[in-house]
Amino acid sequence: MNTASPAAPTIFVPLTLREKAFYFWSAVFVIGNLALPQLCHLAPLGGKTLLPIYFFTLIAAVRCGWRAGVLVALASPLLNHALFGMPPATALPVILTKSLLLAVLAPLATRRLGVTLAALVLAVASYQLAGGLFEWVWTGSSAKALQDISIGWPGMVLQVIGGLIVLRLLAKQLSSPSARP
User: Fold this and answer.
1) pLDDT confidence of residue 1
2) SS3 (DSSP) at 111
């Protein structure tokens, strides 16, 4: 049952592995997750502050479903590391875990609450909390586990607000008469 308010955009229909659109959109979002971190790393502490590697994972998971979210969550950090050396290999387990959590939690939240501010706040807060607990166990450092929250809160705000804007624009474009076959 969808408990979203009437003003909330329609929830996107998840794409299947058999659809060409699944691979098209997944590639678009992986490319976005390759380009955005490069732009953010031009600013001092841009990566740690803006957390750009998660942005298009959130969009992919909500727009195309958890399968596309998982593909983007895995491919983005691994390709960024292979092509640009960022994130460093030591950070990959934590970033991959957080990315996968986001890929699974975002569609669950939006299925319950619609594509709303509350749903995206819930998804982002949930992946950060669970991912932070994993990071604490993995690294043994509570300071590292809290770093995304203490330093990266602007990135989390960007994920929620920017993600909501992009998702609503995509919903609007998909609902326009010219977007119909």
Assistant:
1) 45
2) helix
